[in-house]
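Quick question, first post here. What does this chain look like in 3D?
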Amino acid sequence: MIMTQEQAFLKAQAQLTDLIAFVRAAPADGLRIDQVERGLFERLLQLGLSLLTAHIAAHGDGAIGDTATAPDGQVCRKLPDPHERTYRSVFGALTVSRAAYGSREGQKIAWVPLDARLGLPAGEFSYLLEDWSLRFCLRGAFAEGRGSLAELLGLRPSVRSLEHMSRAVAEAVPAFTDSRPTPPPHEEGELLVLTADGKGVPMRRPPADGPRRHPRRKKGEKANKKQMAYVGAAYTVAPFVRTADQVLQELHGAEAPPARPRPCHKHVWAEMTRVAEGEACHGRVELFAHLAAERQRRDPSGQKVTVCLFDGESALWDEWLEWLGDTVGILHVLERLWGAAYCFHAEGSREAEAFVAARLRMLLEGRVRGVVSGLRRMGTKHRLKGSKARALSVVANYLENNEDFMRYDEYLAAGYPIGSGVAEGACRHLVKDRLEQTGMRWTVAGALAMLHLRATYLNGDWEAFHEHRIQQEQRRLYHPQDQEPQFAQAG
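> Answer (accepted):
Ran it through. Tokens below.
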């Protein structure tokens, strides 16, 4: 039964009376304060649902006459029967009965004035419930998010509905990202740093055509395959001049490092290869296009020095040359040195640490060729063969071929950052902490939606994004004739 506003208010008054009576009786009943708090919260949810019902009832059914003009200019007539829809709020679900306009029953409804008057969302879930639900799901599995909603609010949306919600909401992320305000110049550093890396995401296997021929996996066969997520970060920072000794001391924790400048307005992003409108969109290309756009947004006049930090994946450097080749490219090679060290010394040994430290010092002092020739002499002296000889040759050739990107003595003197820790951290926080939890398997669409939502959340833009998305959806639903509204920072 649909309540009138007066009926809803009477119910709310009875619930408020019950709430006050509960608090009055709590001391005599010997309730702990947490038990009172829990009882209050449960009753407040019931009270909130009644008051929300009263608010909806105040608008009636939204009828505006026998005919109405829809936002697209179509003149339509009032349909004889009311049309109901479910609205799922943080207080619980309720039914909204509305007058609808169209050509005739059974055809597509052209206009529902009450929906526009209330600002109802496109789906059943309220904007607030979407916000809270996704905050849970951004941190843990969808099933855990559903459990949290059930424990806190008594709501039990299906896991499938939460997955669908994340994909639907994520569709608004790219437009929001493009519309972000540029950071104020006085809050930016002198250097613009762009960094990128890759992290594998465990993917669902496609359904088999018929029964599986091999119920057990073969030796060495993995339970799932991974697809690369390409993760990038952009930030500005003040120059930080250091010496080779200071870098080595910091790496070994010999003494407290000097306070380094903090990154300003760090922005992280991630892309995966996918098919869009029948065409393949490569994740790596999409990421570097995004970084190039971020560079243009943060430094439109080209006055800043742009420093690009990547690890040794050649594909990343190919994209760098394509999109950002006029910037300072810096290669992160520490892992390569460890690989060379293990050709001569046991993993985790002090000898391996000393080997790496000595050659890192040489690289930091700009002596790349000395490191290369020394590695090759050591390989010959120790008569390395097989896999160790091949591994050492790969490292030596790699350093020799990329000497131009390892002018660390010049970089340190100019105050440039030389480590890829920001990208590695982004891979961990953005990808691993959410998409690689135990037993998780993803589709490309689901993984990309979660990456875009988590990037927005980690960038500190969640509230602004949520408001921007609401404005865009309300305009699309109820005011398509209006011009694009200007973006306004929430808060």
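The chain has 18 helices and twelve strands.
The radius of gyration is 30 Å.
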